[in-house]
Design goal:
Chain A has four helices and nine strands; from the N terminus they run H-E-E-E-E-H-E-E-H-E-E-E-H. Chain A is an alpha/beta fold. Chain B is built from two helices and eight strands. The chains are: A alpha/beta (about 210), B mainly beta (about 200).
Amino acid sequence: MKNLLIVLGYALLISSCAKYPADSVTTEENDIIGSLYNQNTNFSSYSTFAIVDSVLLIKRGAGEPEPDTGYFRYSDRMISLISQNMVSRGYTRVSKDSTPDLGIDVSVLNDANIGSYTYWGGYPGYWGWYGYSYWYGWPSTTYYKYEIGTVVINMIDLQNRNDVDKELTVVWNNVAAGLVASSSNYNTSRIDRAINIMFEQSPYVKK
Amino acid sequence: MKRIVVIILAVASFSFIGKAQGSSDLQLSMNYNIGIPMGDFTDYINQASFRGMNLQVDYYLSDKLAIGASIGWNGFYQKKARESYEFGGGAINAVRYNYLYQLPLYLKVQYIISDEGNIMPYVALAAGGHYIEHETYLGYVGFADDSWSFGTAPELGALMMLGQSGWHFKLSAQYHLTFYNRNNIGTIQNLGINMGFNYDF
């Protein structure tokens, strides 16, 4: 009897290896939406913004990242949703040539393992300020690990650009990771939700 | 970790058996354990854990007073709905998965309040080290951390004699307090409900 008890005890000990209950996780539940901002920025001091015409697709081994040439089918939808949110926060959309206070760019990492943010974040010429690089007021690379399908939205201060050091300050940076697993997996509602969450969790972005 | 614990237990219990031949001073008990989060710990996980066990050895110094040791474990888990978590300079929105695995190693003192009838109520106080595995995931990005903390547990329970077989049914409530203070969790409090069997050697 004693031996039985002991054997039973060890059997229970060893068999309880699954420490937690199993849980099913959908792809959608893995989406992470992060928003960072420059805490010295007064967002109500800006009035106008311009946004890129198309989403920048970033591909590995393609040399420099290049603006989407039209095959990224969510490009227009994303740009329009970001604009709507900006307008509802009190900003006025203007064209890039009308000296906007803020610039917004949208990028999608279309290939895995691009590397750190700085590799491509300052893609020269993307904003028409050739030779300028992006400057972040925080250690941006420490927060995220960039995966394939990551959507990155940057807001740049064009009012106070640094012409001496040729720097454009990023005042608001958003990363939606996990959104796009493969080209067939692009999901409109997930992208829409991610963009809306970026604004919801950033109440300070308002005129 | 688990393997080491099993080996220690094996050695400990075999040596106890050797020592306790022919006497009934020694009791070994095995319990199934439900853990119910209490206090501030419910901010992290508020779902009860039905995955727990503990083993106890008690040595009776007199009819009513015993000293003993125990090892137990419980796996707490909770999935939290999508939410934004703010921090200085930003926010992160994700589905969150919180895990906490607790393995208390206790030394204890137990006092039988009454041994008159078939049902013997008792009180006990245990204290010792708690091995804690903490894991939290925001989406697919996770963070894990293992540590040891001091913990204590008052206990109230009863033993019910099952004839003259030497077996008892045991039911008890144990309030585990782990002085954790890590990962934004203060004291881990949980109410353990133990159900099991005691055997008199």
